[in-house]
Amino acid sequence: MDPSDVEYADPAGAFQGATSVFGAGPGGQPPAFDGLAAAVLDDRGTVVGWTGTAQDLTGFCAEEVHGRPVQELVADLPHDTHRAAHVPATGRVRLRHQCGNTIDVTYRTTRVSGSADFLVLAAPTPHVADHRHGAALLRALSAQNRITIALHDTDLTTVQTNAMPDTPDGRPIQPGARLSDVLCAEDAETIEVVLRQVLETGVPVIHRNQRVSWRHHLARRHALSLSAFRLEDARGRPAGVAALYIDDTDQLRARRQLDLAHAVAERVGGSLDAVRTAQDLADALVPPFGDLAAVDLADAVFEGGEPAERMGGGDPHLRNAALAPATADWPPGIQRGNLVPSLSDHPLLRRFQHGETVVYDRDDYIALIGGPHSAEQFLPYDVQAVMVAPLHARGLPLGAIVVWRTGPSEPFTADEVDLMRQIASRGALAIDNARRYTREHRAAMALQQRLLPPATTDTPAAETAGVYLPTDRGGGTSGDWYDAIPLPALRLALVAGDVIGRGIPASATMGRLRAAIQTLADLELEPDELLTRLADLVQRLAAEAPPGDHDVMGATCLYAVYDPVTRRCAMASAGHPPPVLVRPDGSAEAVDIVPGPPLAVCGMPYETTTIDVEPGSVLALYTDGLVQQAAHDVCDGLQRLTDALATSCRPDRALEETGMAILDNLVDEAPRDDATLLLARTRAVPAEDTAQWRISADPAAVSDARAWATRQLTAWGLDDLLFPTELIVSELVTNAIRYGRPPTELRLIRHHVLVCEVTDSNTAQPRLRRARTTDEGGRGLFLVAQLAERWGCRHGPNHKTIWSEQPIARAY
Q1: Are 765 and 800 in contact (CB under 8 A)?
Q2: pLDDT for residue 606 is more than 50
Q3: Long-range contacts for 44-53 (Cβ within 8 Å, ≥24 apart)?
Q4: For residue 115, what pLDDT is reported?
Q5: Alpha helices, DSSP H only, in 523-619?
Q6: Residue from 256, 6, 44, 297 nearest 126 by CA
Q7: 702 Cβ partners below 8 Å, 6+ apart?
Q8: Based on the number of CB atoms within 10 Å of its own CB, is 745 exposed (0-12), middle (13-18) or buried (19 or more)?
């Protein structure tokens, strides 16, 4: 250590006790020594004065050293006698101790005013080094603007501090002040309780987080890290408390802003609903960023449209979409769904419209919304500052975020403006994604609804009601559909299907499949044959699809045909869930049907299952979105559907009402998939409205068939249809005898139309042709086509049936 750097006064007001206790020196000095040793030397170096502290340091009393040269007390006296007689101003020597050891001391000399004597001050060198380091440390700490040091005596009065509080006069805190003179009363009392505990117990406090406000600036809160320890004198008695305050306000603010940015990133964007996204954004901002927050969206955004750019004052065409907290005492003009009022053409408004995040004070905000009268309607209570951030994404002005700070709140800072700009950018992107989804979802919904059949139908075979609930997740609807297709001979085809994929592509595929099924149904194919041909169509559609969509082209389908005359239902499944049959007595069960592969898979056969159906039964077709719910597997879902149908399908309850009730009870609030349900309450044609005869292969049987038909129509009171019916029966029976194979049957069915059917065992397809003038035959089907409203042919496993329909003009 350079002796010239040694100081014996504490210019910075070092901690009490920092230089009061000295440890043992290298020579084994006694450990107890407090203060500075002092001696007076004359101009010859003789000791003429000796203090008690000098005796404590060396062990020699005044009588033992008085009058003796000081060199006798120095252990390492220089050999140069001239130099030994000279006493330097400062230095470091080893003194003899009475016990025979030596003490390494550092000293300083000064001439006594008006005398030739010298005053010598000395202290053990380790003690001086500790003092120097402590003073240097204290000076360094005192120079830190984020570190405040305060020394308090035993009654917690400030003895010394480097604190510079935010006071009106800007002066430092003076000795004698108390914490309540600087801090607000509540914060001062909290800290004094901590310091008093340290003073009483001696247990230090390390890094205690404390929020405080200056007495003269209550709105600004500071985050401090408090460390405190007890000061003691040489005898170990409490002498006061040293407190170290580290200002963590900036770090806390930065950490809070980072946490807020993370919270916004986690909470905002998880929903594809624009209003839900706006609410998530508002909730994330309160309370971390402000006391109140609102998100206003352009009117067009709610419908998925693109808002127009608007400049200057006037109607901003914004509507409130979210408020946080919702339970706050909002003014009457700020409510969910309310329009934002017309705004004045203010410079800050222009900056906002050009994409800047702006901060308003109370007066600016009042001027913007139209004066004090409007402020009562649109200004929250006790507002101190307002920040408004535009929501811009992909060049579209989607809306605005408004954040208010009320009461004794801190003003918005430039860092917070930058943070809000980032939050608004992320929020705008999430809202725009939701807006675009809404637009696509609405388009897909519109297409899906247009492609679906009427919700209810009423046919001789059954009354039907279809209900459809689209999902709110993903890319839109998933192409679920149902259909009820009237067929000849009063039969009814029932269809339920589910297309792979979502959105407009799925709806378009669904429309193509529904059209194909209707076309194939008109061919009156058996259910298994129809699904086979439909699977071929899906394969062709997959081949036509873009390369990336080949694997997602497919569908499941259930096709059933109910005949009200035979009261039987034939059905086949292409990977679709089985239907549920509810009998008139209220019992219900899933139909035991063998499912085939989905329509995207070719080469696998489908199997037709036929069941008897009593009149008044309800046949339920559905898609898997109704039975595959988050909390249930498919088997549990099917059982829940079966139980619900057994409970709800009552004869006195409308089918559409029943279907809606079942969807409400079984489908989750946010379904993962579309849910479709088709209910058909079956009817039967009375036995007295049908007549059937077996026709022999003899050509003479044609006249018998005409006679039978005439008698039956007369019995039914359909005399006005006798002539055309005789011709139709004659031509159809003649063709069956001539070109068909026995057995041959003739059947008449009376309903709103008269159905005439001739069945034979030849599966060859008849065709209509125009006979030449010289031809003797070939005019039979042509005559049938002219006499009947419509006619056709359907095929069974080993037979074909040619049928015709004639309208009945009057009720029977």
Answers
A1: yes
A2: yes
A3: 44/69, 44/85, 45/69, 45/70, 45/71, 45/85, 45/87, 46/70, 47/73, 48/117, 49/117
A4: 82
A5: 527-544
A6: 6
A7: 730, 733, 734, 737
A8: middle
Q: Residue 539 and residue 537: Cα distance in Å, rounded?
A: 5
Q: What 3-state class would DSSP assign to 768?
A: coil
Q: Any idea which residue has 């939701």 for tokens?
A: 434
* Strand 568-574 to 595-596 pairing: parallel
- C-alpha distances in angstroms, 549 versus 250, 500, 541, 552, 658? 53, 11, 10, 5, 38
DSSP letters for 477-542 = ---EEEEEEE-STT-EEEEEEEESS-HHHHHHHHHHHHHHHHHHHHTT--HHHHHHHHHHHHHHHH
| Per-residue model confidence as pLDDT tens digits over 370-417 | 777 777 788 888 888 899 999 999 888 999 999 999 887 788 888 899
d(CA 754, CA 719): 12
Q: Cα dist. 699→308, 724, 758 in Å? A: 81, 20, 15
Sheet holding 800-807, edge to edge: 690-695, 744-750, 753-760, 800-807, 790-795
Return the DSSP state at 415: H
548-564, pLDDT tens digit by residue?
Answer: 565 557 899 999 999 99
pLDDT digits (tens, 9 = 90+) for 616-650: 999 999 998 888 865 567 788 899 999 999 999 98
Candidates 190, 119, 112, 132; CA nearest to 156 is 190
Model confidence at 88: pLDDT above 80: no
Contacts of 152 (CB under 8 A, 6+ apart): 158, 159, 195, 240, 241, 242, 243
State the DSSP H helix or E strand holding residue 109, giving kind and residue range, or none if neither: strand 102-111
Say what the pLDDT of residue 777 is: 44
671 φ/ψ angles, rounded to the nearest 5 degrees: -65, 145
Sheet-wide strand order for 205-214: 158-161, 147-152, 238-247, 217-232, 205-214
Tell me how far apart the alpha carbons of residues 685 and 3 are, in angstroms, rounded to a whole number.
125
Q: Which two tokens stand for residue 419?
A: 């943070």
Q: Is 679 exposed, middle or buried (0-12, 13-18, 19+ CB in 10 A)?
A: buried
Backbone angles phi, psi at 534, to 5 degrees: -65, -35
Give Cα separations from 213 to 165, 303, 412, 452 (angstroms). Answer: 10, 48, 17, 67
Radius of gyration for the alpha carbons in the chain, expressed in angstroms and rounded: 51
Residue 134 has pLDDT above 60, yes or no: yes
Band of the pLDDT at 774, cuts 50, 70, 90? Answer: very low
CA 48 – CA 42 distance, rounded (Å)? 7
Over residues 209-250, the pLDDT tens digits come to 877 877 776 666 777 888 888 888 767 888 888 888 887 777
pTM as predicted: 0.59
Cβ(696)–Cβ(708) under 8 Å?
no
**pLDDT for res 646:** 92
Q: For 96-121, how does the pLDDT look when each residue is reduced to its tens digit (9 = 90+)?
A: 888 888 888 888 888 887 788 888 88
Residue 53 phi, psi dihedral angles, 5° rounding: -70, -30
- In the structure encoding, which two tokens stand for residue 559, read together? 């096709």
